[in-house]
Fold this sequence. Notes:
The structure is a homotetramer.
Chain A: E1 2-5, H1 11-23, E2 27-32, E3 37-42, H2 51-54, E4 59-63, E5 83-84, E6 90-91, E7 95-101, H3 108-121, E8 125-127, H4 145-158, E9 161-165, H5 169-178, E10 181-184, H6 192-199, E11 205-208, H7 215-227, E12 233-237, H8 254-262, E13 267-269, H9 271-275, H10 281-291, E14 295-299, H11 317-333, E15 337-338
Parallel strand pairs in A: 7-8, 7-14, 7-15, 8-9, 9-10, 10-11, 11-12, 12-13, 13-14
Antiparallel strand pairs in A: 1-3, 1-4, 2-3, 5-6
Amino acid sequence: MLIVMRHNASTEDVDSVLxxxxxxxxxxxxxxxxQRVAIGLIGNDGKVNSGRLVALPGVxxxxxxxxxxxxxxxxxxxxxxxxxxxxxTVMGGRGIVLVAGPCSVESEEQILSVARSLKRAGVTxxxxxxxxxxxxxxxxxxxxxxxxxxxxRAREETGxxxxxxxxxxxxxxxxxxxxxxxxxxxxxxxxxxxLRAAGRxxxxxxxxxGMSATVQELLLAAEYIVSEGEARVILCERGLRGFDDHAxxxxxxxxxxxxxxxxxxxxxxxxxxxxxxRTKVPPMARxxxxxxxxxxxxxxxxxxxxxxxxxxxxxxxxxxADLVGELRGIAQAIGRDLVAPLD
Amino acid sequence: MLIVMRHNASTEDVDSVLxxxxxxxxxxxxxxxxQRVAIGLIGNDGKVNSGRLVALPGVxxxxxxxxxxxxxxxxxxxxxxxxxxxxxTVMGGRGIVLVAGPCSVESEEQILSVARSLKRAGVTxxxxxxxxxxxxxxxxxxxxxxxxxxxxRAREETGxxxxxxxxxxxxxxxxxxxxxxxxxxxxxxxxxxxLRAAGRxxxxxxxxxGMSATVQELLLAAEYIVSEGEARVILCERGLRGFDDHAxxxxxxxxxxxxxxxxxxxxxxxxxxxxxxRTKVPPMARxxxxxxxxxxxxxxxxxxxxxxxxxxxxxxxxxxADLVGELRGIAQAIGRDLVAPLD
Amino acid sequence: MLIVMRHNASTEDVDSVLxxxxxxxxxxxxxxxxQRVAIGLIGNDGKVNSGRLVALPGVxxxxxxxxxxxxxxxxxxxxxxxxxxxxxTVMGGRGIVLVAGPCSVESEEQILSVARSLKRAGVTxxxxxxxxxxxxxxxxxxxxxxxxxxxxRAREETGxxxxxxxxxxxxxxxxxxxxxxxxxxxxxxxxxxxLRAAGRxxxxxxxxxGMSATVQELLLAAEYIVSEGEARVILCERGLRGFDDHAxxxxxxxxxxxxxxxxxxxxxxxxxxxxxxRTKVPPMARxxxxxxxxxxxxxxxxxxxxxxxxxxxxxxxxxxADLVGELRGIAQAIGRDLVAPLD
Amino acid sequence: MLIVMRHNASTEDVDSVLxxxxxxxxxxxxxxxxQRVAIGLIGNDGKVNSGRLVALPGVxxxxxxxxxxxxxxxxxxxxxxxxxxxxxTVMGGRGIVLVAGPCSVESEEQILSVARSLKRAGVTxxxxxxxxxxxxxxxxxxxxxxxxxxxxRAREETGxxxxxxxxxxxxxxxxxxxxxxxxxxxxxxxxxxxLRAAGRxxxxxxxxxGMSATVQELLLAAEYIVSEGEARVILCERGLRGFDDHAxxxxxxxxxxxxxxxxxxxxxxxxxxxxxxRTKVPPMARxxxxxxxxxxxxxxxxxxxxxxxxxxxxxxxxxxADLVGELRGIAQAIGRDLVAPLD
Lengths: 343, 343, 343, 343
């Protein structure tokens, strides 16, 4: 940590900063410069309460030098995390994972029909919501346990792994009974009670980036889960809040590259929420693979125009199958491949 | 709801939109224009699944005309909501409410000392966190029930009302035993399980705007609480995520005006989180009152430089007392006043 | 244009809106709804002064239905614009164009050396700045006419087309003598005097999206150029201002898809400014091609660490040559190709 | 400048950073830490090309410690800049300046009528555009020199000072003949040719913050003007691009406080563009004064509903006169006052 002093800071100002640093149990080392003094804080263990320094007299700025996350950091662990799901699908390796399915589980027929066509298209992980976070209290909120049962049936028939969302610590226990991967949604990325519960559930976690979360905050949220003992965390970029409504969200594909540089965790991209409209999903799924994503997560519905939620962004199964071919070509062009389909 | 068709949409396109509208149980009425046809959807009860329409062939755009919130809307209830807290403090009336206190409850001495000086300054509502949502899992997380007990002692001694945060549905029950107002933090604004629980707790709720939430989303989050039966909701603007680090957050004071136009609920402003640095709190507290806020919520600590959290933004008690004088002058200049101090 | 009335608007309110519409020379048609009245404005020629309506009593909102741009709109001209540069390079067709070169022209040796290696890598359009817009008045501002002369020499030797930036109407005349494509930078996207001058120069224009410009504003800026007579406009996505500093800018690749839907103009992507750091350029260049961009524009410098400007984002020539191979593979995987190299 | 090395950077990495620093003519000083080495760059004269360092092997981050602006910095000049306009109005002192007038000059009757009523309300500076930057090429672009002549007539009759916008270097010369203050609009904040020309015109300059400009960029733009010799620069906050359409722009009043901390230049606030709608202008004008602005700039039109531009945000003269009374009360409540009206 570096404490930058104002140009006209007095010797007393510098001394009082040094005193506070000592009081917190660290060592301060002044670095005289041409225009101003800066003070290096030595011994930062990631718990320095910088707020005590930033408003002291003569202080211009306090600059963190240490990253606040540890266990998820690539700096502290070079090797990429590789996660093997119950059905053998490997995330974080050379193979790019296809996750697909409807926004909400609506009925047995719906989920089985789409699961079958997705399996044929090469998908090995099925997504589908049983508990839905909705902006309006009057919108459809999911089938609950019945939805989980239906996902289970789809898994049994197809062999696909299941990823589905939990909304609160109570619901998480139920979801953990069924899911191969527990999803934490964007609105809950900083719901710390939920993150901690997810870290104790014994199931891999897919953590979606919050709508205005920085990559650093995403990694800190992952650190919450890992610090409870669950190392199998998959990150997910799903679009940020932007100022332009040409798309529903602003898909930040550069985050894929930044996450790979800063962390050893795998990251997938959700172009469905990331764009919000069907026509934009295929090009952005392709772009995600080209950018180096470890997987894509796409909403597919047997009859999009009848979907009870997110109808506008759900793809038709046939269009999705076409997309898979393009994704495979792109993966191969950059020295990767799609994960092998289930038998 | 208005469905705008593309310039070159065919008659079949228009017909299929009309069919989907009928299928959802509404009536569609085509409005021919000079350049394109638009279709008005008649009978919107706020539950139209617009996703089914937006991606139909020939559709350029779907424009909502009805606001998706109801009970919190000024359009449906003209009179401002006025909330009387247990100690008689009235929020949402002519009087502007002062809410102040430390970020975290740290010790009996700390909370009592600051409560006494705040009462002398005219404050009638004491804030202080017993459960703290922290970006890093390694940061101080609050005293828990002990913190609530300490707040209770401060209330007993001073007569101030207590506002304190709940982080999850379980914790909320405990908080509700002690608090006069339950605070829902910005990171939890769309934690719907928590919102529902708060709406059933029988205690007024202070709902902070999420870091990148629109005013409409804030009102929808309030609607979650109201729809569970709790009409006493106080909104709080606390700064948005911005692109410029000249302040920690981007305080959106215009939201005060927008909320008053769109909703009958009271709104207070938190200039401490809204700016993140002590020197900026007084001018922005003054600006909040001038903009028409129904209250300000300010972090004050007996020894800011020793605060375990948010040290940089906590004010000194003496500076806060000076600020109160300015706020009173501004309130009177715009035909309002501060609420009367406790005896 | 749709004028949405408040729920409790009076008949007089509706009548006065109708009167203002008539006064402006259009026709208003009331559309009664279940909750409120809306008024359709018939005959909108794109010049309606909606400000006169939006603040009238009883008006809730004014919703534009007509797009404000015309000549650049895909709705009014289905066929994509295809632009052939002086050296035969075609932009906007099936072939994806490679534009590359240093940020600034620095010396004859620098520009010739990089031009030769780029030509070998298959690049047909050379970029390089002779006039540099710099955030600080104390930073290097470019070689001026000397830089243009050096670009000319590089063109003569290699046959590449030249794209270079103009900063103001005077400078533009000089740039137009040399350039095959005149670049308008992001900071000048709404410098209307410059746009008009560019539209009259008789040279194709590459228009970069402003740092916080919507796609609609980008298209309107293009409309300025086209409305002066220059139809050969190439748009460029180069990253937006975001709240997260994990990258210098927030590259909005979805804009490629939106531009292709809304307009017939070609669009290229600049991953160098779009990310700001060398390691992120190749993945985002790949993503741009996968998303459907008509070209990529990449900063390459013979010795990046000695570059006088944008050193951090310039690629090494050898790395760029590797990237070209990947881009070709991706282009072919989506049914396109790179434009053929020069002989 | 501080160069932070990666945790696992080698000695060679550190040495090569030191070599590049020496090559640029500065001195590097390694600062060993518990987790990593940082290197202080000594002798920074504000011209360090940090791009040469940021992408070197082993470098994690380069952190600027010196502010890139000098002449406008409060750190280098403590005393606030006080600017006296031709008619004696003082900006930047204890008195808060009222600037008001229509968006565009439309006719002699319009400008004289509004000028008279504004003078009666206590306004001493008249604003009005003769050259208008418009997002659409088809919108009204201003009366040009005729508009300047009309402003001159209003000045002659009322004694008010005139502020009006220049769009390009050529137009600036003409504007400088008439204006008491030349306005540079938000879209041109980084139009460096225009900034330089404005710095040489011999007339005070009002510089509006760009729609997504940081405060630092605003100060750097001001530095362009000052570095050409014109020290009389007035900054203006006019709202930023935000993600929420509850108001046209996101008015960043905290910037007033930040500018006063970082710079000695005065800053005014434009709540008309800052909110975009008439009903929100008075509360935000009041908030601006309470936040410490040195002036407010408000659009007032004799008949807002007939205004050719920005009709929705223009105030009625009578409402504005009421507002002035409130602003005076607020100014006095914080120890300031409005500037005295003209005789």
